[in-house]
Amino acid sequence: MRRVRLISGSCVRAILLAALAPGLVASSLGASVFALRTTQAPTGAPPSVWDGVFTTDQAERGRRLFLANCAECHGDNLEGGEGKALTGDQFWADWKESTVGELLTFVRTNMPFSEDGSKKGTLPPSTYVDIVTHILKTNGFPEGVQELTPASSLGVRVIRREGPGELPASTLAKVVGCLVPQGAGGTWRLVMGTRPTRASSTGRTPDRDVALGDREYDLKFVLTSLTRLVGHRVAVTGLLIGEGGVNGLNVSSVDSVTDTCN
User: Fold this and answer.
1) CA distances from 199 to 94, 97, 128 (A)
2) What pLDDT digit, counting tens, does each position of 205-250 carry?
3) Based on CB atoms within 10 Å of each CB, which residue in 24, 65, 143, 206 is the most buried?
């Protein structure tokens, strides 16, 4: 694989934590059935944060653990302080269209913060899971009847209630498509592009095998010639300019995937 490294005009924002909240209480048989249904995604659809992926008791444990380990930087109510806010617009900017598993991985790998990095990853594994459920509950996602675990967090989508949407502007994202010659204005362009995914996402389909799409992207701030990659299937990483990259990408790298585009 040939790689061309490019220089981005922007620096990548640091990513932090997550969100979810109010829920369901099952007391009678009818309520239990209702709660059970809310923990299940529609048939054939991957699970999401709206399917009740943690319990009320677990989120309460997470609240206490958050106050003891995280509130000093992120605020008692996750409103932010020395560290990022973990609710509202900031949560969606950092975690929309990612997964709870990716959120959990980030938290347990990077937190608690310390200047020398000596504290990150030092809490018990169950503590990180419970703290994530508190973040989810605080952001309004519903409780369910099963506790969240590292295994159950995998693939649980962080999406708006109405369903999947576009990644926010300035998200570090990746797209795959076909590189075409520069246009009249000298801008490189990607055609047959895929929907952007977060560059930090894991478990994605290999770039060689992913189905190409129908999107087109202007590749901005490219300071190295891409002539030898014209006609290739390429993977492009960069900051989205506009929601979903509607105005292009501020490119940080271009990788040749195959020397033909199909």
Assistant:
1) 12, 11, 23
2) 899 999 999 999 999 999 899 999 999 999 999 999 999 999 999 9
3) 143
CATH 1.10.760.10 positions along the chain are 29-153
For 132-144, the DSSP string reads HHHHHHHTTPPP-
CA atoms of 136 and 141, how far apart (whole Å): 6
Neighbouring C-alpha atoms within 13 Å toward the C-beta of 197: 20
Given CATH 3.40.50, say whether it is the number of domain 166-258: no
Does this model's pTM top 0.85? My answer is no
Q: Which stretch of DSSP H or E encloses residue 220?
A: strand 215-220
Q: What angle do CA 53, 57, 58 make, to 5 degrees?
A: 50
The CATH class given to the 29-153 domain equals: mainly alpha
In the beta sheet, which residues pair with residue 250?
220, 239
* Structure-block tokens of residue 223: 């300071």
